[in-house]
Specification:
Strand order of the largest sheet: 6-7-8-3-9-10
Number of strands: 12
Radius of gyration: 19 Å
Shape: globular
Order of helices and strands: EEEHEEHEHHHEHEHEEHHEE
Distance between the termini: 47 Å
Largest sheet: 6 strands, mixed
Number of domains: 1
Strand content: 25-35%
Amino acid sequence: MYPCSMKAAELEVIGASWAPHKSTQPILHPTSFRVCAGRVLGVVGPNGAGKSTLLRLLYRFHKPHSGQVMVDGQDIWSMNARAAAKRIAAVLQEQASAFGLTVREIIELGRTPHRSGFATGRVGDAQVVERVLSSLNLQALADRDFRTLSGGERQRVMVARALAQEPQVLILDEPTNHLDVRHQLEVVSLIRSLGLTIVVSLHDLNMANGLCDDVLVLRDGHPQGFGPPQALLTDRLVSDTFRVDARREQLVPSGTPHFSFTLPH
């Protein structure tokens, strides 16, 4: 488990909605849920369901048009951006070119919220970076140019940068997208080991079944259900949400639920 200096926090969303302009149709309609500290929430739904919009509300990129996003009972918009960045970190699908920065330098960027003014470093920053490098087994890559890494290695580095913020809540937007099977498994194993409150958007329902403590299902910007995946993800809900014929089966001998899909007749 990642030795985070701060404990995981409870995340609560209360009637949060968002639209590009207040007069237009919402992309995300009022949505409410609560993630207990240290649990993993999966956000699932078809393309255009509002998953990325919800995540942008959670990491304070968009301000809700209605409702609130609370971390341990405090509205994140009652904090300044620096204070929020000390509590919430995000790993997005888009990875910057990094302009020739090394892995260590990328991870050091995660310490920015803890610095004042133009300070380039602070007592303890180096120790945090080294701890993160060690926890994610990145020491051997520390001096490599970020651009030379594989997709899976880059994803680990971006998670490491987020962890260097020492957040209580971690937001992950499609963290296994474009990765091969091995690197997908590595990322899933990493997520399980962190011990933080995590919200992760996923396309793969079978991965959500195995990874997440709770799942939020979105369709056309509307929440369809929230709860443990084994109870929530019924054949009917999945079929209606994704407009397919879905069937959940139990894999033998593990008993792990597995969905199969066909197009409706």
